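Q: Here's a chain of 541 amino acids. Please give me its 3D structure as tokens.
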Amino acid sequence: MKKTIFAIIAGCLTLTSVQAQINWGDYSQSFSAEVGNKSSAVGLILAIRKENNAFWEIRDKSRHVLALEKDPIFQRERPRGFVARTTFDTARAQFFLHGVGPQMAWQYQFRVMEYPGHRVLVPWHGIERFTDSTLIHDSGMPAMAYLGGYRTRLGKMLIVDVRNTGQNQIVATSLVAWESVKPVITSVYTSETIDEFFQKLQSPWLPDRQSTGSFPPVFTVPSTNENLIFALEKGQFSKKQIQYELIRTGSVYTPWRDNAFNNSFIWIKDCPPGAYTIRIRYSAQPQHVTEYRFDVKPAWYQSNQFVLLAVIFSSVLLGACLFLLLFIRQRRKTRLEQADKNRLQLELKAIHAQLNPHFVFNALSSIQGLINKEDIEGANRYLSDFARLLRESLHHAHKNELSLHEEIQMLDTYLKLEQLRFGFQYSIRADIAINVYETAIPVMLLQPLVENAVKHGVASQQKKGVIAVVFSRLDQVMTVAITDNGRGFTEEKAGNGLGLSLTRDRIERLNKLHSDGQITLFIQKATPSGTQITLTFGAWF
């Protein structure tokens, strides 16, 4: 029965010890010289997190420690050489009792008090926990008592005493004070004084020309300044220990972020003009924030007056350009209308040699049918469009190339004529990346292909027929796709047509003349039905 009880107690002590241990390498340990020299010496070891060490250059001793060092009652009740340290974050301070293992723990008790006020947090209490094997290995010290981790508020201090119960005498004492700390800006450097900053980094013992209070409460720099460096009180800080935020004209410009350097300065670059407030804090105490204002003056071209004049000038210039553009467009429209009138007087002799006689016969038959139906308006419209197509063909007969805009107009006129006969729908679209007025194309190269789409594709579909002509651009390549939803035809059958045969011969000659801009013709089935004829113009732009 006793063995079982002892096993349960040992198991509880072991579990408590495992739960209570710390990562020894993350902490800075403070203890008396005797503890460091003798493995059997009884003394307290105080462990606080290492990042607190950076603040010791700013505030090493607490005022509470200085007060107790002068208190004769406190000194008389305790041994000399007690351990005292200052900490700054909310983490618990850890306490170990060196020289006391499980065999002799019953001889000692410990107490935790808060100062000032002497409020007892832990009354005299027996030792129940000890370091485990992992902590023994990491610390390099023998097994010792673990008294726990404790903390208090900023501005307060903890006093941990250990006494020998047999002698009723305090044998070890450790003090740890939680002190407030707030960033203090000691110097401000700009692009003009950056050399002084580098000299200060290389030789920190040199006197600082910009000591605290020597710079104005609001710092002003021109817009050409590219660097602002705020040096803080001495201390070797990591990036995560210093944080800052930038406020620009009342709004957050840069939200809270860790510092960019493992040092005691903040370096800000390339701030646009505006009124700024930099807010700096230590991550250990984020509630304590230091603020400093600085202004970045705008350049002359960034002033409100210049911006206003620029807007007025731009508005006047834009208005003049729009007026000129409308004037040019109106003149162009007038010239086109005059050109249309001139085409009515051109001879039709060359047209008969270029257009398909069968098409002319069908067109005249369609006109006769409209007249017989007494559709005078439809006949006039058909006759007008047919005459315009003849005029356009005659006008361009002596040219090798014409603009894509003119080619689209001719195709549109032709498809309108065929639409009157068969009732199909059609569309002609050009990619916005193609300048239809500056892009040239061989004369009458597309008309036989479109005519093929009408005859072999949509003629039998009547009003259900659809033809789409699409001009697209990819880099320097132009593609023309002619698609219909007819019954479709094979390339072998299409190749027997006179129009396609002449087109292939013409492409072959053009490719020989212009080796740098090759043209290819490809015929395939369209999806879900019909035929697609694709012309590719390589290196065309």
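Q: Can you summarize the key feature?
A: The chain has four domains: 24-178, 185-301, 303-354, 399-537.
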